[in-house]
Amino acid sequence: MSSLPDSRGFEIVARQDFSDVTYLLEVRHPLMAKAARAGQFVIVMLHDHGERIPLTIADFDRERGTITLVIQAVGKTTREMQQVCKVGTHLLALAGPMGEPSHIGGQRRVVCVGGGLGVAPIYPQARAYKEAGARVTAVVGFRTKDLVFWEDKFRACCDEVIVCTDDGSAGLKGNVVEGLRQAIAAQPDTDEVVAIGPPVMMKACAEATRPHGIKTVVSLNPIMVDGTGMCGGCRVKIGTGIKFACVDGPDFDAHQVDFDDLMVRLKRFAVAEKAALDRYEEHCRIGRKADR
Ligand SMILES: Cc1cc2nc3c(=O)[nH]c(=O)nc-3n(C[C@H](O)[C@H](O)[C@H](O)COP(=O)(O)OP(=O)(O)OC[C@H]3O[C@@H](n4cnc5c(N)ncnc54)[C@H](O)[C@@H]3O)c2cc1C
Ligand code: FES
Fold this sequence. Notes:
Layout: E1 10-17, E2 22-28, H1 30-35, E3 41-45, E4 52-56, E5 59-61, E6 66-72, H2 76-84, E7 90-91, E8 93-98, E9 109-115, H3 119-131, E10 135-142, H4 151-157, E11 160-165, E12 172-173, H5 176-186, E13 192-196, H6 199-209, E14 215-219, E15 235-238, E16 241-244, H7 245-248, E17 251-253, H8 259-266, H9 270-291
Parallel strand pairs: 9-10, 9-13, 10-11, 11-12, 13-14
Antiparallel strand pairs: 1-2, 1-7, 2-6, 3-4, 3-8, 5-6, 14-17, 15-16
Residues 41, 53-56, 58, 70-72, 74-78, 117, 121, 221-224, 250, 266, 270, 273, 277 line the site of flavin-adenine dinucleotide (FAD).
Domain FAD-binding FR-type: 5-104
Keywords: 2Fe-2S, FAD, Flavoprotein, Iron, Iron-sulfur, Metal-binding, Oxidoreductase
Pfam families: DHODB_Fe-S_bind (PF10418)
């Protein structure tokens, strides 16, 4: 954990918009950048009335003293951040690095799979496997060519990059599970697969590797509240046991995860989440009218 550098919080030093829903924020936080390891996340509060949301540390630069977050605007808080987080503004609170770092080291051939929102979080893992001496293939999936990002960053740290697009406008036509199957066929001695993305995608990756007996790790994204193992909100079923993703994970053995339970739990607050977004959008609409 770390203290605030100034009373306004943590400065946003760079922003990039990858699409109308996906954006990157680079945030100044030298202590976090020093402590962060692949697989970890932060809990962010935008302002003092804001909710706490978990976001993966998609990159960290110890020399610049910054961490990078890549965010998809899916609901009230992530849309509000999309609107108000500009270069020079601040995030009020940033707690972390949280979660167990990924277990990296000793693998010879690894395939890192990132689909949609999982593309950014898989990057620090791919880089760390490479630094630990593994041969790394990245399989990254997007809906279409215009949404592709960080291909150059993956090419700089991986031995092979397989880009997949749903419509075939770039790379392989199909989703990342197709790319994963190709990568395994080309390298049957792959000893580990890491997959990050929507639960349905991670489940499909787990089923693709199960018959080959390849160890497969997924990073789970259940709803989190405190991020410290106290509230039980992030409970996940792993094999016959229960784990808390915020302190026991977020990485788990994909072949042991009950993905159906995870998907049901992710929808628990859908009505309240929609009401919060509707209220926020109405508030923005009234604000825009008043400004005219
Ligand atoms: C360990 C972890 C890492 C994550 N990393 C990223 C990331 O790098 N980039 C990114 O865009 N998103 C990431 N997420 C998901 C992100 O936290 C949610 O999209 C965000 O909390 C949604 O908040 P909202 O108010 O915008 O939307 P809401 O309307 O509140 O929720 C939209 C959907 O997001 C999920 N969600 C809502 N609240 C939470 C919560 N407190 N914790 C987790 N999920 C929630 C639910 O499935 C919900 O249906 C991560 C989640 C976890 C658990
Ligand atoms: S978020 Fe509360 S126990 Fe994990």
